[in-house]
């Protein structure tokens, strides 16, 4: 009897242990994101275009993105076996201080035995100080970190770091000019500009968390001024030698869109250094007719060359740009105020050089029309002018094919034209 009880007890223990093991093999519920007070957090960017991929093994290798200076170098011995690495452009979500295109490096779960090297480009004409350039990356919870050690190549206009972390990366300048108001101004409107500094927050790991930007001290700013020798009326700067200055647009609208270039001259930031000049160009004074657009991470405008409007009813308008032969086409059955969803009668196309993008596309070897997600919104009509905006996806036509189109690319635009 005693032996029988012992066997029953052992059997029950085995069943209990087995049940516990099966329960513990289930993945744990994800822990809620830990909020870090005083740290910069944004959403992750959306994919733009097609990723560049390459399988690299223990012998090492490189991944380079075509037509860019983006490079990933995996040294020999950094990994044990073959890994499919990819570099993907994504939309930029870090607004303050970013001075380049954002790229996503994958896969994130690779364990490196030694540092790998990432090289990223920066925009040389943008709002930055070369000596303050760094690379920043975004962790899985959306927080941004500044990589402490960076090598800047001023000739190639790149920033390089060594890391063991894969995520979204972008070049940053921790001192820059910030526009606190509107980027696109009507005649007579104004906006406040500030020279800002992006501090860091101490982090347990080797890289510092980015903290929200703050204005630098007024005494560090020597003057504000317009850049260039244009004879056009560019408006005025009001505020003198201080960290903040107000830009006021001209009283009359320009004949075509006018970009305003403003400089802030800073006293030497370190002993023995020379004055530093920040140049800011993210202000545009609107003309009567215009189209300002963004496709992927590239922004520009059209309509400064010519605007063609069909007079046969409905919306059928082409904005031509003087730069790169760009053309933006909007088409809808009417010009009434309201939402017009992409479809059979609602269309946006974009041309630049030999590239053609469209909201209406076809699958390879098929003539059946397909429609991307998006819409055109007519905001209103006043004094014979139709104003609106658009947002959605366009697809690039694959060169040399009859029907093939590539992956969807985000597109947005603001426009205004005179009715015929």
From TrEMBL:
Signal sequence annotation: none
- Identify the PROSITE patterns for this entry: PROKAR_LIPOPROTEIN, ZU5
Q: Which domain of life is it from?
A: Bacteria
Could you tell me which residue ranges the ZU5 domain spans?
50-175
Q: What is this protein called?
A: ZU5 domain-containing protein
């Amino acid at each position: 009897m005693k032996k029988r009880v012992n066997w029953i007890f052992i059997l029950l223990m085995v069943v209990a242990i087995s049940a516990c093991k099966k329960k513990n093999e289930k993945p744990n519920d994800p822990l809620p994101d830990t909020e870090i007070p005083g740290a910069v957090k944004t959403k992750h960017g959306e994919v733009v275009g097609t990723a560049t991929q390459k399988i690299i093994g223990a012998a090492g290798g490189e991944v380079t993105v075509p037509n860019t200076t983006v490079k990933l170098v995996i040294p020999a011995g950094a990994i044990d076996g073959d890994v499919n690495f990819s570099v993907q452009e994504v939309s930029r979500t870090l607004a303050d201080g970013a001075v380049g295109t954002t790229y996503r490096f994958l896969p994130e779960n690779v364990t490196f035995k030694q540092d790998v090297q990432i090289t990223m480009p920066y925009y040389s004409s943008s709002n930055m100080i070369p000596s303050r350039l760094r690379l920043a990356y975004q962790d899985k919870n959306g927080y941004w970190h500044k990589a402490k050690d960076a090598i800047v190549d001023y000739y190639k206009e790149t920033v390089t770091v060594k890391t063991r972390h894969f995520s979204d990366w972008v070049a940053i300048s921790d001192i820059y000019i910030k526009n606190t108001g509107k980027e696109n101004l009507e005649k007579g409107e104004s906006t406040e500009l500030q020279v800002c500094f992006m501090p860091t927050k101490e982090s347990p790991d080797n890289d510092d968390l980015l903290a929200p930007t703050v204005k630098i001290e007024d005494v560090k700013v020597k003057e504000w001024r317009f850049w260039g020798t244009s004879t056009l009326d560019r408006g005025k700067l009001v505020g003198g030698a201080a960290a903040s200055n107000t830009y006021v647009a001209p009283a009359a609208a320009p004949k075509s869109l006018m970009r305003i270039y403003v400089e802030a001259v800073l006293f030497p930031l370190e002993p023995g250094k020379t004055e530093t000049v920040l140049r800011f160009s993210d202000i545009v004074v609107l003309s009567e007719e215009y189209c300002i657009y963004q496709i992927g991470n590239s922004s520009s405008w059209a309509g400064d060359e010519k605007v063609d409007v069909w007079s046969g009813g409905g919306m059928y308008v082409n904005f031509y740009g003087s730069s790169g032969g760009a053309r933006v086409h909007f088409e809808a059955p009417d010009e009434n105020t309201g939402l017009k969803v992409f479809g059979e009668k609602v269309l946006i196309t974009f041309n630049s050089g030999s590239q053609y993008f469209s909201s209406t596309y076809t699958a390879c070897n098929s003539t059946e029309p397909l429609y991307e997600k998006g819409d055109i919104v007519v905001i209103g009509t006043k004094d014979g002018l139709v104003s609106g905006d658009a947002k959605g996806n366009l697809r690039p036509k694959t060169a040399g094919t009859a029907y093939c189109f590539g992956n969807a690319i985000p597109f947005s635009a603001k426009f205004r034209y005179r009715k015929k």
